[in-house]
Fold each of these.
Amino acid sequence: MVADTMLGRLARWLRIMGYDIHFQSSYPEGAMHALIQEGRRPLSRGQGLQRLFPDVLIIHSNRVENQVHEAVQGLGLVPDRSRWFTRCLVCNVPLTEAGFEERLENVPDYVLYENPSGIRHCACCSRYFWPGTHREKMLRKLEEWGF
Ligand SMILES: [Zn+2]
């Protein structure tokens, strides 16, 4: 998938749910078309792409909650909890489980104490992610939204 510049929040939520969705806050001339030609399905707030790419999914709602539902239905996605929080929200790449040494070196002690496993690493931006209050909040939102 590739999202247009209006769909940053939607893209973030789809990444939270583990989906591969490319997003940039601005696209140089032709960049979005190139991504579509590589096989990414376009998601757009406007009708502009429809002429060239008939399979564009037009997102109608302004509210991110409804946008997520539109995308899930429109793309025929089947939300799978085991995929949630497995992708970097910033880089859109799959996270890898951090090894023991790596965790000791890069993760605060209190986090290691509370979460001896489940610490994931992004090879692209070098961030570490672990279960915590931030993730809990996102999880609760998804549940509120009916996923
Ligand atoms: Zn990253």
Note: The radius of gyration is 17 Å.
Amino acid sequence: MNIEKKYLKEKFGKNLIIKENLSKYNWFNLGGPADIFFRPENKDQLKDFLQNIKNLNLKINIIGAGSNTLIRDSGIKGVVIKLGSKFSQIKLISNNVLEVGAATLDKKVSDFAKENNISNMEFLSCIPGSIGGAIIMNSGCYGSEISQILISIKILDQFGNEKELKRDEIEFFYRGCNIPKEYLILSAKLKGTLSSKKLVAKKQEELIERKKMSQPSRIKTGGSTFKNHKHKKAWELIKESGCDKFSIGDAKISEKHSNFFINNGNAKTSDVEQLINKVKKEVYNKTGINLELEIKIIGNEK
Ligand SMILES: Cc1cc2nc3c(=O)[nH]c(=O)nc-3n(C[C@H](O)[C@H](O)[C@H](O)COP(=O)(O)OP(=O)(O)OC[C@H]3O[C@@H](n4cnc5c(N)ncnc54)[C@H](O)[C@@H]3O)c2cc1C
């Protein structure tokens, strides 16, 4: 262990792990170790950490629930941050506005909104990520996206400076936004519309049921691998190009949804990545359409 890592380990104790295996922090269950894995207790500790590493020239990655992320087998050089439980709190700040920690799971936010008679957050119960991940991805389904209910976010930049960004200062688009990569989202204010618990519960159940019918559950996946093309859904392009039966090693494509790629048990990230590239190439050859990745692939190439 070099001197900097030793110093950081001594300073941050149990919250910092050297060479932590990342496969348990993502839905694919894949990926090698992070050089430095940091799970801050609270905002002050995160600021302190950022101050301490600012001259070390380390690349910083942050992961949420890891439901949209594929991590390479050789792991991640630099730092991986995963926000701890203090970043997973929900506060009702007026009758239809919530302040939500970035690590809070979307489903929890949807349930909290329901308990408080707030509608328009039902779709969050269908997305298995955290609020931080949902904002970066502008996640959504069935006609709703998180940008439609967002008021503002609080962030820390890479030096530990705190800022608030209003919705209007951020550009959102289909499965993405222009929030700088260095920004770590701490929390968000979300605004719904007042309704009744009964109506919200009904809408939430309908969406969950719809989701169950169309997408596989209890599998190791990152959800939709590619973004939909403006004229056609990615799953249709994959199926029509004859790629839905492709596999490499234990990396497969879901029979229920051909845009869901799966670690069928013993896949490596390299298998999944090769399968992604093979499908992308074949779809391009057959249709002339260049599929764009929705999932994020991170980590060292070798
Ligand atoms: C079964 C399944 C179904 C899915 N269905 C849908 C769906 O219907 N609609 C949809 O949009 N998506 C869907 N997804 C994809 C995924 O759940 C969403 O993209 C989700 O919002 C990602 O959140 P996460 O916390 O898991 O993000 P991660 O995968 O951990 O990270 C995604 C990105 O967000 C960044 N990030 C995470 N937290 C922070 C933070 N605090 N600050 C700054 N950056 C951060 C990461 O660095 C990364 O770039 C599905 C995935 C699965 C596995």
Note: Residues 88-213 form a domain with the Uridine Diphospho-n-acetylenolpyruvylglucosamine Reductase; domain 3 fold (CATH 3.30.465.10).
